[in-house]
């Protein structure tokens, strides 16, 4: 293993460039799952199902479409983070072995991780920004402060992504990824206050929801969009999400080094 | 059937894909392509699944989560919706639709992703063809396994619906066979589609077909939400027929129209199986 000769930012940016080079040629393959899917979801649930919902206390006095849009932004970020953090990472270790090629250059295993996470963050930010634009065109966004939902959704997505990347780095087989999707991502999508207020669920579910990054993200995004966000709770949500990111990075650095250092 | 059929029957059984002018049946099942041992492939799938049982079991939970979330969460935002027999509780409205959608999703996933992986990467079928089995055994065996798995999921889901009192008629006994028919239709078409795929990127096209079907085929809200012309479009899509069929069976408002839905899926099965076996035979033997 060669000694580290690149600055941390330079190395991470080189890793990002690597992903960007691939993405520039293959972005079409990701348009449908990353972009079209949430828009279709917004149409079906927000407009179609929303037509059956009576505007009232449960939706904070907003039409259902407006109630749903900021939450869907966070859910989309978490779902995209899921795919970018499992199969893509696993493949770079095992199938395509790109990480192994990268660490034979002066880039260290930890820098590979940082580059990967930075790339995922950029993907989440651009994806949510595009979704916000479409939601605005559909009339689902009524306040300019909704722009804040993009960084909040990205943070929530990364709070999920970083620990999952660390986990993926420990896997020798991809078998458990489907289970993660079904037992973590699906419940996080459906039961954390996105489609209906958490208060409609039995009390024992609430603490479970509070553990999920998606719930914190939805609170932040909705609060920013509707202007109901208070400073202290907001700081609490951001702190919790940042702690999850930090935990994921710390674990990831360890596992990447263990797997890639020769 | 024409005269050409008889000449073909007397011809030696050659596994040749191109046989112009032969009868349809013989082109679908040329004698050399079927060894009558499809059950061996089912046994293989079963053995594989015992090692990855987690992914098999977990498939059951996805529609269940949706049912809880939609039925009991969203259901409180909406009191009643227009069902087949007038206004009905939202949970009872959405449950049969989720049953149909999960039959579709399971079948399409199994028939496209798994088939493509085994076909292109694991080279499972190349190994299978080194034995007396032929492409038709493969198509039948895989389809059967699809149905067994899909049938188990559907049966579990119907049991949950029964437990939550979401079934209002003895007609629901027919829901399981109906699910199998729907699954078979989607599996056949999915298998046919998988034989046209070149790489993983093409699976986005599968998503592009399945996702809108799931979201817009009156799964979550009644058809009356759409403007008139869009209603006609939706009424032509396959999942709409599956959902209508399930909703009719679980609520008990079954009319002769149900046969239209059954006919729709019968056509899908025939078209899918014909295209899939022909393509598989061609791709595997050349």
TrEMBL record, chain A:
Membrane-crossing segments per the record: 31-52, 64-90, 117-139, 145-167, 179-198, 238-256
The ABC transmembrane type-2 domain, residue ranges: 29-259
Biological processes per GO annotation: response to antibiotic
A GO molecular-function descriptor: ABC-type transporter activity
Subcellular location: Cell membrane; Membrane
Domain of life: Bacteria
Keywords noted in UniProt: Antibiotic resistance, Cell membrane, Membrane, Transmembrane, Transmembrane helix, Transport
Family membership: Belongs to the ABC-2 integral membrane protein family.
Protein name: Transport permease protein
Automatic annotation (TrEMBL), chain B:
An individual GO BP term: response to antibiotic
GO molecular function ontology, one term from the record: ABC-type transporter activity
Location(s), subcellular: Cell membrane; Membrane
Domain ABC transmembrane type-2: 54-283
Highest taxon in the source lineage: Bacteria
Membrane topology, record value: Multi-pass membrane protein
UniProt keyword Transmembrane helix present: yes
Sequence intervals crossing the membrane: 53-73, 93-117, 150-168, 174-196, 208-229, 253-276
Broad class of where this protein is predominantly found: membrane
Record key words, sorted: Antibiotic resistance, Cell membrane, Membrane, Transmembrane, Transmembrane helix, Transport
Gene Ontology annotations for the cellular component aspect, listed alphabetically: ATP-binding cassette (ABC) transporter complex
InterPro entries named among the record's database cross-references: ABC2_TM, ABC2_TM_bact-type, ABC_2_transport, Nod_factor_ABC_transporter
Pfam families listed in its UniProt record: ABC2_membrane
PANTHER family: NODULATION PROTEIN J (PTHR43229:SF2)
Family: Belongs to the ABC-2 integral membrane protein family.
This protein's name: Transport permease protein
Organism: Saccharothrix texasensis
